Amino acid sequence: xxxxxxxxxxxxxxxxxxxxxxxxxxxxxxxxxxxxxxxxxxxxxxxxxxxxxxxxxxxxxxxxxxxxxxxxxxxxxxxxxxxxxxxxxxxxxxxxxxxxxxxxxxxxxxxxxxx
Length: 115
Known about the structure:
alpha+beta
């Protein structure tokens, strides 16, 4: 039996999520453990475990993730004040769900370095 993916379960409608935006390729929903006043995850509808699993065929999809992030920023009102986008890849970087996802964080001042 393969491991279950919580994000695939959200896509299938088995787990509820507060959806902020979606199109044919991606979906964006609020993180259930927010690290900022605005914390939205943008995921591809295709299951891709990590950034290391991307190939040349995903170039357009990665662009869709970032375009969706800009739309999320506008929809949540953080596009002018500022926001951060983050991908985590594997355990040491903090990846908990092995389905690539772009964090969109905003609504507060961000510090640098991030951690």
